[in-house]
């Protein structure tokens, strides 16, 4: 199975839906700012997840399309605001919204995407009582994402040696996995799945999301700027406490020069490219990148077990393939 | 009728609801940031409007309390983000969220308030199909508020002589009146009102909101900092194109020294207190403040006519009193 081609094919319907949900509005500048990230593509993992889970559980996938679009619009809202907060100037190989426009417009564009996502949610064709459930699920997910982003920033100010790996895992669960969970759980609800299926799809998506984020942290160090669309080493410069960094600091002795190389660059806005490279090299040498890859792949293996609740189908196979892809991709 | 005492009395239930909806979360800093404006009070006009409209239409007002709380939480989310964008350092006599914490925390706190508002919406005890209607209504209102805020900022960069009074009215409709409309329309929906009643309550609230905002612009020039909680003259310094300013520029001749006084201070971040005072004096002398007061009071009179669709009740009287209060208050 060519998972990327399959993902692209499955994303077509949701891409059309996203474009149509974001085309109406009176303020041209705001509309352009709102459309800037969604129109630049992206893997569409979350909406495709909602759609495929709905199919795999036994409902019609198209009923999950507006919901998936809402989830992807929420994802894009968080990217717009995160880029302002992290002062990231590039996204998907293009200037960030606040760079192309300005910070106030980026704040409003994020808010507008958020609003449009919830308006889209009212369009989902489900029994009325399910609308309430989807609303609660999705709104609570956004609250948790906000907590995750706050923790991610708070962590940057805590000495990395004082953070436990559990703190990091809880943070990335909130910041990344919760929206995957919401997509999958929502897809199962829309398909009229049993509570057992709904729970299993959420648990599958949790593993997918955590594995995805841990692997993303690896890509941010080793990936190619041209394929990831983001400058390599930004996480080091911003002082992100990733699993990789926490593992290295737990394992490198106080007098190890690799520890010094890492701490010299970590959170140092003025670190030179050479210092960034030395820090990445240190993380590679001490096995922390391999460790993170291993953990990401353990999550993928665990996630696949939750798929056993589903009947065999091409969609179940796709869900298994997508979790492998999440922890082996190039960008 | 002592409308302020009545408003305070009616706000008690919603205040408890707002506090309880905002008390849970894992990140203490984020919770404090989230609670900062809601806990500082405010008139609670919007949630009380939802509650009283529900009563006046004939339903139990308490069913509208979670909805009113959601609307007030949305209002507070917009205040948090607006203060970041407008760089306003004070709100309700206290430091703004981004001053007390920092800009990223304020952006996240706004997002978190937004999320919690929609979670609260899922708690509203209405027939399931009404949940969907309330969701669409409220989410679309937030989109329009975002457009209104964008236009407000865009207008600051347009020569004030190029803006029509209609542009200003459309902007404040979006920025302010739409949330009043949403509160009243939602209250009528929750009470099971007829479509005629629902429409009338929305139209009443539109007049209330527009009158409220025009009067607010007057207060921002003439009000006492101690009662409004905001520094007087900020709107001049920020270059806000209010009805007052637009009227003055349409009526002051090119060689009128009052025109010069106004244009010297308008949008001038470095304007001295004396220059600000001179601009306000010019607006007063040329009758533009009186004009705005007159327009605000016309909206109030128009709004009251829409109440005729309701049976006589203390709640209908309160709705009439509140619209008079909106255009005659001290803060």
Protein model, in words:
Two copies of one chain form a homodimer. Chain A has 331 residues and is mainly alpha-helical. Chain A has one domain (3-323): Farnesyl Diphosphate Synthase (Orthogonal Bundle). Chain A contains 16 helices and two strands. Chain A has helices at 3-21, 28-35, 45-57, 65-86, 97-100, 103-121, 128-155, 165-190, 195-222, 225-228, 234-237, 243-251, 257-265, 273-285, 288-305, 314-326, and strands at residues 90-91, 94-95. In chain A, strand 1 (90-91) and strand 2 form a beta hairpin. Chain A is globular, with a radius of gyration of 20 Å. The model of chain A has no long low-confidence stretch (mean pLDDT 94).
Short description:
The first copy, chain A, has 331 residues and is an all-alpha fold. Chain A contains 16 helices and 2 strands.
- List how many beta strands of chain A DSSP finds: 2
* Most extensive interface: A-B, 46 and 47 residues
- The quaternary structure here is homodimer
Radius of gyration of chain A from the CA trace? Answer: 20 Å
Structural class of chain A: mainly alpha
Fold-level CATH name of chain A: Farnesyl Diphosphate Synthase
CATH homologous superfamily of chain A, by name?
Farnesyl Diphosphate Synthase
CATH top-level class of chain A: Mainly Alpha
Q: SSE order of chain A in H/E notation?
A: HHHHEEHHHHHHHHHHHH
Shape of chain A: globular
Terminal-residue CA separation of chain A: 19 Å
Range of strand content of chain A: under 5%
Mean pLDDT of chain A: 94
CATH architecture of chain A: Orthogonal Bundle
């Amino acid at each position: 199975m060519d998972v990327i081609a399959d993902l692209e094919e499955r994303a077509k319907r949701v891409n059309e839906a996203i474009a149509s949900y974001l085309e109406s509005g009176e303020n041209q500048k705001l509309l352009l700012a709102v459309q800037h990230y969604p129109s630049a593509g992206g893997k569409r993992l979350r909406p495709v997840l909602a759609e495929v889970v709905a199919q795999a559980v036994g409902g019609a996938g198209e009923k999950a399309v507006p919901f998936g679009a809402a989830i992807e619009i929420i994802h894009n809202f968080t990217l717009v605001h995160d880029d302002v907060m992290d002062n990231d100037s590039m996204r998907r190989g293009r200037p960030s919204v606040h760079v192309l426009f300005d910070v106030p417009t980026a704040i409003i564009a994020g808010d507008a995407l958020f609003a449009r996502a919830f308006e889209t949610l009212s369009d989902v064709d489900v029994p009325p009582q399910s609308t309430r459930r989807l609303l609660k699920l999705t709104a609570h997910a956004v609250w948790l994402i906000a907590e995750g982003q706050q923790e991610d920033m708070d962590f940057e100010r805590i000495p990395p040696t004082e953070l436990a790996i559990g703190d990091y895992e809880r943070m990335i669960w909130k910041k990344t996995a919760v929206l995957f969970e919401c997509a999958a759980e929502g897809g199962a609800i829309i398909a009229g799945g049993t509570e057992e299926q709904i729970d299993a799809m959420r648990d599958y998506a949790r593993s997918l999301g955590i594995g995805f984020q841990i692997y993303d942290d690896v890509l941010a160090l080793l990936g190619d700027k041209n394929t990831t669309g983001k400058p390599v080493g930004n996480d080091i410069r911003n002082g992100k406490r990733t699993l990789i960094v926490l593992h290295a600091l737990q394992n490198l002795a106080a007098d190890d020069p690799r520890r010094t190389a890492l701490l010299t660059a970590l959170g140092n806005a003025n670190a030179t490219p050479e210092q960034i490279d030395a820090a990445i090299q240190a993380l590679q040498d001490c096995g922390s990148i391999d460790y993170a890859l291993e953990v990401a792949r353990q999550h993928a293996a665990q996630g696949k077990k939750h798929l056993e609740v589903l009947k065999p189908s091409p969609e179940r196979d796709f869900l298994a393939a997508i979790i492998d892809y999440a922890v082996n991709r190039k960008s």
